[in-house]
Amino acid sequence: METRAREGNAEVDASEGSRASSAAARALRPSFLAARRGSRFAHQEFVRLCADAARRGTLTVGDARVEAALMGLSAEARMGQSEQDAFASAVAMVILTLRRFDDAFDASAEIDPEARGMLKYIEMTNKNADEGHTLRRMELERRFLNPESARRAPAPHETIMRMNCKLTLLTREMIEHERGITSARRELEALSASVSTERTEVIEIETKQQLALGWCTRERTPARALASDMLVAFFSVLTGHPVGYRAFVRAARTAYESGISADEITAALDGAELDVEGTRRGMFGRASDAPKLFAGFVSTAYVAFEAQGLPLPPAANGDEDLYAYANYPRAIDETGVEREEESDDKKRAFSRGLRQAVELWLTMDREELANQVQASLSMDEGDDDVAKQPFETGTPPPPGDDESFGVVRDDSLSRSSITIETLRNQKNIVSFVRDELARDAR
């Protein structure tokens, strides 16, 4: 009897552990996809979330391999083969770096030969970083010493290697930041400089001490935490990935119901945190457009929630238009001049104009809207033949016999026009808002 009870308890524990591992792995998916798209901020978020799960014991290297394979079979969140490999490798890189450099981390578990090989890579990468081969230097060398390499799309193995390099250096930087080692190193470097050293030179010395991309040290307020979730999801929204839309909308709903205005969400971010590096495959627009697009998508979600009847929180003071307005996250504009603040009347006018478009999409037949959205999604970002491309170019048509212009249908216009693509993404957000609220009625 006792034996059966123990076996039953063991099965329950195993089942709960499996669910916890699955939840931890899925929570990493948005930041993983954004990191694959070149988001520097997403690399930091991935490290933070992965390290937290590993320290709680809810995610191991083995769990990551299993969960990646399971996500490859999932109809809702399908993961391509190259993505499965990259995901398992990325999780292993963070956990094994913790094992190597964090004395407080439980390193009692056995590791397989593949993991031992990765540990050697971690040792080599961090040793090179200590000798000056930081991520910043490697990126500059790639860009200036080999410009052809910087322009072409990297091969899959190159993408994984670059991502792994960033992740191990960021993980070590996180550990050192927690212990105050990074700050102490910078202080020692500054003190070792000659007394005659100019302050600007000291600042340069301090900047060079960053092992990787500059750790995110801002306080994680509720607005900051939700803005971070929405930002990493935003990069997958740009590539039409359903995981990005779901994560973006769910974080937006939490913020909306928590009394955090759309403007507070965007104000919690710096414009530089929307930067991407390398090849932005599947993304549209210029990098400088990203802050404005992000603000527009946040406002779209807020307007859609209000239009769908989600109660306005007390913090909105009954002003749904002002509550939904979001300025783009950049303290100063591109000229270096402080941006002129819009009047409340202009902000309300913007939200009212956006509401007209949102309500038009909401009047569409639910099935028709869902079909249009489904046709625009890109599920497998690891497959170049399947992943959504920004645009294509072809041979121009020959002129007519009467010397008139040749006219042909441009099927790539919807992918090359930032206006059309932005409207499509906003329409998709509205559809996912509707789906999110429909879950409550089930």
Automatic annotation (TrEMBL):
- Looking at the record, which segments are called Disordered? 1-20, 378-408
Q: Which domain of life is it from?
A: Eukaryota
Q: What is this protein called?
A: Unnamed product
